[in-house]
Amino acid sequence: MIREWSASFQSRSPCFLFSRLGLTYIYFYCSQSAIPMTNGFLEQKSRGGYFWETRKVCAAGCSPVTLRVMSEQLTPETLLPGLEAEWERQGDIFDVTVNDQERIVLANPADIHSILTDGNYAEKGHFFGGIQLFGDEITSVSGAEWRKSRDITGPAFHRQAVKDMTSRVAAVGAKFADDLRARDGEVINVQKEMTHLSLQTILGVLFGKHVETADRLAYQTLNETLEFATLPQNEINNGDTQRKFMDHIVKLNDIAQGIIDRTRAAGHDQDSLDLPNLLVHSRDKQTGEPLDDERIRNELLAFLFAGHETTSLTMTWFHKLLEDRSDITEKIQAEVDAVLGERTPQLEDLSKLTYTRQVIDEVLRFRATVPLVSRTARDDTKLGDRQIKSGDVVVPFIWGAHKHPDFWRNPEMFDPDRFSAEHSAGRDRRAYLPFGLGNRLCIGKALALTELTVFAAALAQRTTFEMEPNDAQPAVYVTVRPDSPIHATVRSRP
Fold first, then answer.
1. How many secondary structure helices (H) and strands (E) does the chain include?
2. For 344-400, how does the pLDDT look when each residue is reduced to its tens digit (9 = 90+)?
3. pLDDT value of residue 48
4. Could you say which DSSP state residue 108 is in?
5. Could you tell me the pTM of the whole model?
6. Hey, which end of the chain has fewer CB within 10 Å, N or C?
7. Distances in whole angstroms, Cα of residue 458 to Cα of each of 84, 349, 373
8. Domain end point (choices 70, 99, 120)
9. Residue 279 domain flag
10. Where among 48, 70, 92 does a domain terminate?
């Protein structure tokens, strides 16, 4: 069922129009200047601009825009159950229709491995459509533009660089855990606290010395920007809420520009691997030209958003899944006490926190932060008996791969012991891919795993969480988030 609506906004540039697009969200911006209509698409014309299919597009000043939107029978809460039901009905390769467009979904890890390591599927596809929160940046571009982003930012995530960051990650985690311990008896929103921790780490570790105190106040702005995607439809339609979101986007861009300006004024530090330094002072290998400020802003904000999501959500699900699992909690505490005592965890400690890492691995399997990815076929080919045509969008269903009964024993059971050395022996490595696979393997994988291990250990040293009863279920807002707030009472460990 398709419905239409019109909305008109007369406000300062960039003006904002929000639409709920079936299972996720997309944001429309336009400048006050003329916006041409091109084959039914609103073209990207201003900083942070985005587009989606339209029936009518205004000429100037953001006059009415009519949008095609899927009916609300599709929700973030029903995406995963719906895909699982189709998987059970159709088998490991199944078809779904999203916004009148066909998608081929793959649930078998062997098929997913084939797609993600095959150069024929190097171009990103879109499950929902042409959704971008920011403009061109490492997570949204393909081909030569993706390679450019990867080459520029890659040094910040090399294994040695991550090793060098460990002490800074540990210092942030220890201070956060100490502050939380001092709030003994307080009821907290777990996701908000874990978001605060992960953002503090990303800003301090990756953004470095050019992030001023004022920029750190962006926590609330960033949190509210992310939380906007979780609001119910009636709140999203509220004009004040929409204007607030627009203001947040403008503020985040201004913060990113401030970081760029200070980095440029400080000159090139050849020994620094901070992201702003790498991006501002990079040169295109082919043209010798620097990145323009719009591209740098997009990259910085993309890393800020994507860089904290896996960590904050995994730590949120970590605490939720350990609710009523004192057997697991006590084993983590015993290991942390034996390995660390009261010390802050350091690089050499991480390999000794084996059970803690098993729990993290199981959380990443059981609640994969990114439940699916998309790729576009370049040429006609076959996958088993299935014909794939050029231009087809193929969707590796990572959530399904992590629960495939041919690859996992009791896949619906939360069991960290499955990642012990004994039980991991002989398991098909293709079945576990929380950070993707192939040339688009998540660039921040090593840093994320370091953060998760350090944070879990630091919190276990100092606190326990008494979880409030809650039946929070996974809901897909691009990433897998709880569908309701998760609260806990903080208790200081003696």
1. 17, 19
2. 998 999 999 999 999 999 999 999 999 999 899 999 999 988 999 999 999 999 999
3. 31
4. -
5. 0.82
6. C
7. 36, 12, 32
8. 70
9. yes
10. 70
